Each structure stands twice: as C-alpha cells, then as structure tokens.
Amino acid sequence: METPPTDDVCPICHDDFYVPCKTNCGHWFCGNCILLCWKHRPSIEQCKCPICSQPVSKLIPEASALSKQDEEIVEICKNIQQYNFLYAGGMRGLFVKFRGLPLYLQRISDQLLDIDRYYANFQRLRFIIVSLLLTLIIYFMRYSFLINFS
C-alpha cells in the first residue's frame, strides 16, 4: 500500500497528514482538509485538486487509517466513502448516483440553508424562477392560436 511522503505535509493545512488521502491525480491531503474543500464549493460538483485543478473522482485513504477505531477517524473515513460513492464514474456511477439521490438532496438543502451563501442562493433561485416563467410564457404563446380559435 502507498503512503504519503514522510518528509511532506498537507498542502492545505501545512501540517502533518491526518488520515492521509491520495487523489486520483496522485496528490496527498489530510482527509478532512480535502473534504472541507469539497463541502465549501458552491455546487454539488466534484472537488478540484487544490494543486493541479483536476476533478477529484476518487479519494484513497491510507490503509493504516482504515484500521483505526478513533471516532473522528471513523467519521472522516465514512465521509470519504460517501464522496467516492457520489462521484464514481462509468455505468456503475450512474447507478450509484441514482442510489445516492438522498445524499445529493441533503447536500443541496445544506447549501440552501447556509446563511453565508444566502445571496448567491437567492440569485440562483431568481434565475431559475425567471427561466421557468419565460419557458412557460413561450410554451403557451406557441399554442395561443389554438386557444384563440376555440
């Protein structure tokens, strides 16, 4: 099993690795640090690697972290598993995304209720409502000649 470089530190918190995780692009981060980067993104899309900006589709925790029983480590490993569950690729990913719909909805509701993102959420909601109204107007205007002649 691979381990992070012994003379390196987490590029996010600049401290020793705590529950080290390797991304699909090969960079190492603390499990909690990379998960916080993901949770503070304005949407439910994949986290981007803070070093190379590549989308992170899989987080691989160091094997020794999986065997520890510390409550905090278990929670971080569970969150890593949820992240991997949400962003698995291919046909399996499609099935997983369908099964993970409750997790997506929870993530969206967390973002909508976040007071720090209130203005951005308000702007998105306004855009969605205006788009929906314009779509309905165009749809009904398209068939208005049927209504006028009846």
UniProtKB/TrEMBL annotation:
Residues 10-53 form the RING-type domain. Keywords: Membrane, Metal-binding, Transmembrane, Transmembrane helix, Zinc, Zinc-finger. The chain crosses the membrane at residues 127-145. The keyword Membrane applies. InterPro entries: RNF170, Znf-RING_euk, Znf_RING, Znf_RING/FYVE/PHD, Znf_RING_CS. Coiled coil: none annotated. GO terms for molecular function: ubiquitin protein ligase activity; zinc ion binding. The keyword Oxidoreductase does not apply. SUPFAM superfamilies: RING/U-box (SSF57850). This is RING-type domain-containing protein. It comes from Lithospermum erythrorhizon.
